[in-house]
Amino acid sequence: SGSKDDGLLPKDKKKPKKIMPNFFLAIRVSNPQIHSAIKIVQDSITTYNEKLTPALIPLATLHLTLMVIHLENDEQIQKAKEVLNQCKISLDPILQNSALTITFSGLDHFNHQVLYVKALGGEEVLKSVVNIVRETFTKEGIPSTDRREFSPHLTVMKLSRKPMLRRKGIKKIPEESYVSWVDMSFGEESVNSLHLCSMNKKKEKDGFYKCEATVTFIDTANEPASTEAENTRGEVDEAQELNSTGDEEQEATSSSTALCDENAGEASKMLRKTLLMRRISPRS
Ligand code: C5P
Q1: Rounded to the nearest whole angstrom, what is the distance from the C-alpha of residue 149 to the centroid of ligand 1?
Q2: CA torsion, points 97, 188, 228, 284, in degrees to nearest 10?
Q3: Which of 56, 71, 246, 274 could form a disulfide linkage to 76, CB 3.0–4.6 angstroms apart?
Q4: How buried is 206 (Cβ within 10 angstroms: 0-12 exposed, 13-18 middle, 19+ buried)?
Q5: What average pLDDT does range 257-270 have in this prediction?
Q6: For position 219, what pLDDT does the model report?
Q7: pTM for the structure as a whole
């Protein structure tokens, strides 16, 4: 969406240059049932036209974006970590005790460029979570780089992952490739943590984005004491995804050790049992 000079606007009235996001706040979607259902849709798209395959989102990176931001340097990354911790204080009463479960159901698209699963159940709580996150970051000087209103979506495919497709004449995601699944139920994700993720840094070993920070919301009803978080790792997702070349927008540039503590099923339950409070610590 780069702004091209169309010659209609005098120079001083040109739109200001769009600031590109390089980090985002997200909920990881790791329920294996949701992954399996999305794989059915993705396989169907591949069967329709295998040239579309590079536009599919690897299952290991599935997430729901709450906000996209631009962080210029380490200092701003540090600031963003602190702001996420600040969000946690406001979010604790909302998200503790697994109070947010998102139901994913049905397919929709943004302008035929992005195919996504709709987030239906839990939408109201989700919206208040997003409002808190967006307001807190904006108040602390880290505004969203995207002016669009929050529209909950779990992306399964986007053409921008592979600009070559557009050059080859594939300008839209063909509806026939996924039409059988538009009313499919994908499953539920219980939200226990939020992540500050890098779009450009090398993905973690489990295939998910590098998380600069994670805040975790604990089931206080069952937990007697507070402990400092250990680094924990999720299960490795399907091996094929580890070989993924990743997004054009979100491609690897550097390596690092792992810290991202989000994952599926049993591991997630264990995590909730072991952690009462997670503090964001500076990364090496
Ligand atoms: O990574 P994520 O799932 O958030 O990617 C969604 C894509 O959909 C992004 O490329 C974003 O620019 C696009 N989008 C859109 N219209 C919206 C929200 C997101 O085209 N209302």
Answers
A1: 11
A2: -150
A3: 71
A4: buried
A5: 35
A6: 78
A7: 0.77
